[in-house]
TrEMBL record, chains A, B, C, D:
Reported cofactor(s): pyridoxal 5'-phosphate
Domain Aminotransferase class V: 13-298
The protein's enzyme class: transferase
Designated name of the protein: alanine--glyoxylate transaminase
EC number: 2.6.1.44
């Protein structure tokens, strides 16, 4: 049907999401609706719920595959674990952490904002100070983005866990892994993350439409007493249907379920750690290129370098938005705009998900029977 | 990739959603991601927002295309127009009205439930009595399903409006049109509906994934003072981006946007009133068939007959669930189960959306240039 | 893009080809071009050539997958095995055997036509008489359709072989299996068939585009001395590339190769003999229905009944073409026209390939890794 | 289903065919079979036959859309216009002209081969000499490739016409436009070409499967007396069905018909002359790049430079096949091998069909109704 902008050749998608979808995923989604109450869909769902835990590196977590976006996954994370007025320590380091904090405030939480200059990571010294002081355990949760998509900054979650352990602090650790999970090294169980979340259109390399949230046993426990009002995002409804073996409190997207199956199959085939290493190579290569262009990385220190997105600072006499516009109009190339505080100052190169890199194609596997 | 159940031939989908997707819609969705911040996506969105109003028969309404399901569309409707504790008159006539009422209660509203026997429509006499008494206007909203999908009952919305007008009552009229809009006669402006909602996988004949909500000017006004906590479902965020001309507070599904374009094109081509007439013919035909089988319609009176779904009562010595299971296993035919109170007692035939009927195919239109 | 005739619902395709394509095959073909000289395409081709032999029930045959239709596959069969002027015994029993005979004559062969009334099978008594007389072995080939698509008549190939053996006659047996292979019981090796051919759009349930020809060692030997001019259809070019391991003398359709892979996978999964049994059930069911309608089968004796197509004789006061036209316009249902001698007198129901039947859907296989 | 070689990212297809398919064409082909005897397919075919003439720049020609490849289109061209023993002047300038000459010889024509060094164009001085001498008009046809895909050499067809006119020679001009039509400046009527041919997988940017042949009135006239045996490739069968208005002597590929519709729509939208100019820019850019790399173009003179393919000569100590293999394994990049005489000496860059170039994307057209 209508193709709203057409030029010969292909779109070069280098935004930090939505990313390029692998052809096998597009093929898997090229299908009719199915009745989700038939025996086939629960059978598919059951194994998806099992397999999706691997992308979080958890065995004890409980995943929720919600028909929503990252914003909805945030809301599901907060409302299921906390009650209005609960104190959250939250780190403002860029546009996406800012938006999450805005959500936290609008949902009635008491947010203790720890702000850093954009381009720097979460200030964990401040966190330490707060934990030290909080002997009364008024802090109910730490909310942190693993990777700030607006500035290309990766936070150190292992240190967050170490600090909490050092002070024996019971706060929940809520992690936005939207631009990290399936691309950066993320270890839910090892780092004691209580809720982690991502969206299908990021490193999973699918269309938008699934907010995937994973809850630790402690988070599940918290959800039993959390008083935030919620229905659509309520884990309880999912858990009820998990027990019944039908899995879905409301109609899932059949197409996205098969797409997720295909995406997880590809991850399994390549190996999650190989995928993460590939992102490391591409992140490094991008930074070397930026350096070679004589431009500056918005990220101020190597420890925060992001392997999924690089925000490139342009000289002050240039509007970075013009670069993005020019790239689109002239090269059919999509780059990320600078957002909010860094609007006009940076443009962003997304290097996550289904992207080429220098590789050795394998001799093809030979299949003779239907998968 | 993996096809989890395969038998030769085609699945016969006769559930009241998700429904059969037309091939042009599947083709339109067979595509890569795009950057939603490029100029192309807002241009597409702008015209979608204009065209989608037609399915509600409104010119004054403001539509919101939300990446969610019907359940989320319900939540968006309630939380944007009402404050916790607000009194809602709500009609319990089947499983889906029950679930909506459950949501209303869990979201902290004061729900005045008007229950009917399953198989009967909303009791508008009770509504009248309540309106008559409510001279203080404590009733803030009437929440009603246009069509109860569990029992195949269509409520009379024109009468609801007449009653409100008769008593000059300012309550908002919130309508679940999930199994009616694009199939039954629905007139948002004429009937003074304040919020109407549907889901993409119903009569629009798309995959699941879009909750489409349309708000009257009065509803929009109400949203400015409604105190229900909300972020993901907050209209305010949409309105802000509408004004900026970029339209999306968070990442939309590119595939569903093009799918919606195709679905609206097909509606436009056939003509919405022709589509509604087609549903009338198919609904009538189904009821005649049920009668010919010697079976009873769950819907107790002709005035409530639904042209989108028929719940068929089986003889008491038969478990209707067995019929559904048998149809699936033996004929690759999906029917709707009886739910809750009517479990085992009825099975449901969905006759909405993209279904064949006796028709005269037209001589093909001749196109020589790209759309 | 343009959909030239659109009505709600689905097309009901009951012509004896092209047939309904299974969704997994459509998905497998939804892809970009690939370089057929890369290592991946030969690897795929090699296994396809091995697997495609199974549909002919041969282990000693050599298959050729030619970018053409059935008509081209006929031509490939004739020109590779015979020289101009060679005597062929050929059976005229309907429109498709007639067209093949026309081709044989136009290609310069000396065709000994054995005609039967349309609705009857090949007259093997005449064949026997000819073989008995032909002690000089002037007959170089027997050309016979396994199943005449115009009348729904299946010939008895086992008897053909018996007669040849009885008279120790060395004539090549050339079989048009277009509407039989993958649907009817066909045994290339056991029946001593020298060349068998089919087209992708028939019981293989793919799009048109592949003429699949399989040659016995004796046929291959004959091809070395056959003097018919040929290039595009010359097996020699294929054999040369088979030896080089690159397989293709000219560009293959990548999409059809992957589609063939998927189609063979589905056959393998269901089991070829189960597929043949399914066609027997559907053929029988169709004949029972025709009988119940009080109509006559064009096929005159049970021994010739076809399990892939039934030609239904209409009462003399009706034009069968009107039935076909009516079915298409009013029910979006495609039936086969009566052709040539039986035009206006019969309409045809194709019951081959990817069609539903009463079945027991299996509990879904569970796959967790990519195929 | 099975994806036989998979690596993250996309395949970079820079072979001179098959080329990259535009997404709208892939979408248009993502569909079920249809009955080609229904009214819809002839209606589509009729307009396709009209529109396809534009790619040849002819109004007087008669096109044949044959389910075959370029090799089959060659055969159709020769056998419909010539009789065995007829004298053809044919130019050997690379692998594809060599293969065509091989076909001409195997089909029994008397081929007068004019050979040039590979990298040079057809020697038109020799042609002139032959025409001058041939006062008896024993030369029945000139067979020439417009563009030799193996060496990247474009012949000057206007000069061929001028020579024929100068000597008032009636020989037919048969042109292989496989790697030129839809990409290079080609003018069937103006240049008095009698038969021109191309394949769908070349500059039309579709899958393999259609050999498109266009015949001048003079060629059609010649086909009435040409004695070459032919059936599958016989124009007469097409012409018979053209007259009947059903168009197809045997089953066409429904998917390719809709794909061709979409491909012609895209050509129409961009404008054929703009498309040709785009190829000029890309051809020029490629040659500049080759020069900048310090490598030599296989094409010896500027007048023969090809805007669809560049054969790059590698230093003598390098095997060009290794470059091609390395590009594929390491960069998922497909280049063309050197063939036959230039094997190991050149690699080829295809720059035809659906490729990006520096462009200005247009503000999107707004469509509100179905195409």
């Amino acid at each position: 049907m209508a193709d709203y902008v057409y030029g010969p050749g292909r779109t070069h998608l280098f935004v930090p999401g939505p990313v390029n979808i692998p052809d096998p995923v597009i093929r898997a989604m090229n299908r009719q609706n199915e009745d989700y109450r038939s025996p086939a869909v629960p059978a598919l769902t059951k194994i998806l719920l099992e397999d999706v835990k691997k992308i979080f590196k958890t065995t004890s977590g409980t995943p929720f595959i919600i028909p929503t976006t990252g914003t909805g996954a945030w809301e599901s994370t907060l409302t299921n674990t906390l009650s209005p007025g609960d104190r959250i320590v939250s780190f403002l380091i860029g546009q996406f952490s800012l938006l999450w904090i805005d959500q936290q405030q609008r949902l009635g939480f008491n947010v203790d904002v720890v702000e850093s200059e954009w381009g720097r990571g979460a200030d964990l010294d401040v966190l330490e100070a707060k934990l030290r002081q909080d002997t009364a355990h008024t802090i109910k949760a730490i909310a942190i983005v693993h990777n700030e998509t607006a500035t290309g900054v990766t936070n150190n979650l292992a240190t967050v866990r170490k600090l909490l352990d050092a002070y024996r602090h019971p706060a929940l650790v809520l992690v936005d892994g939207v631009s990290s999970i399936c691309a950066l090294d993320f270890r839910m169980d090892e780092w004691g993350v209580d809720v982690a979340l991502t969206g299908s259109q990021k490193a999973l390399s699918m269309p938008t439409g699934l907010g995937i949230v994973c809850a630790s046993p402690k988070a599940l426990e918290a959800s039993k007493t959390a008083k935030s009002l919620r229905v659509f995002f309520d884990w309880k409804d999912y858990l009820k249907f998990y027990e019944m073996g039908t899995y879905w409190p409301y109609t899932p997207s059949i197409q996205l379920l098969y797409g997720l199956r295909a995406a997880l199959d590809l991850l399994e085939e390549e190996g999650l750690d190989n995928v993460i290493n590939r992102h490391t190579r591409l992140g490094t290569a991008t930074r070397l290129a930026v350096e070679a262009w004589g431009l500056k990385n918005c990220t101020q220190k190597e420890e925060w370098f992001s392997n999924t997105v690089t925000a490139v600072v342009v000289p002050s006499y240039i509007d970075s938005g013009e670069i993005v516009k020019h790239a689109w109009k002239r090269y059919n190339l999509s780059l990320g705009l600078g957002l909010n505080k860094v609007a006009g100052k940076v443009f962003r190169i997304g290097h996550l998900g289904n992207l080429n890199e220098v590789s050795l194609l394998q001799p093809p596997p030979i299949h003779s029977s239907i998968p």
